[in-house]
Amino acid sequence: TARKLELAARNIALELFNRVIKKTPVDKGRARSNWQGSIGLPVLGTVETTDKNGGATMAKVVSASAGFEVGDTIYLANNLPYIRKLEEGSSQQAPAGMVALSVQEFSAIVDKISVEMSKQ
Q: What distance in Å separates the CA atoms of residue 20 and residue 35, rounded to the nearest whole number?
């Protein structure tokens, strides 16, 4: 059904986004807190908050994706000027980046969500 497709797609996106957020290196937590989720268009701008463990950031991303429907595009954006350098490995905490590594895990994410949804 369309609802089940929406749920699967949203859950896959959220798992991918969670992995990106958790892999983001932390000094004060500003890079991690600047991951912003949206539907339809990517978010522009940055936030001044910090989030060292990523929980508050992920909660905001989950909330932003609540209206997701089949056919929508869901985004995760980080507009900090130094996020590209972090992705390119400038931090010893994430020498292989965050986004590229998480995208490499996409098949495993799809498998994980499929198993979880088949149990429902």
A: 9
What residues have CB less than 8 Å from 108, skipping those under 6 apart? none
Cα 94 to Cα 39: distance, rounded to the nearest angstrom? 27
pLDDT in tens, 3-44: 888 999 999 999 999 999 999 999 999 999 999 999 999 999
- Residue 39 host element (H or E): strand 36-39
**Cα angle: 110, vertex 114, 116; to 5 degrees:** 120
Helix or strand (DSSP H, E) at 60: helix 55-64
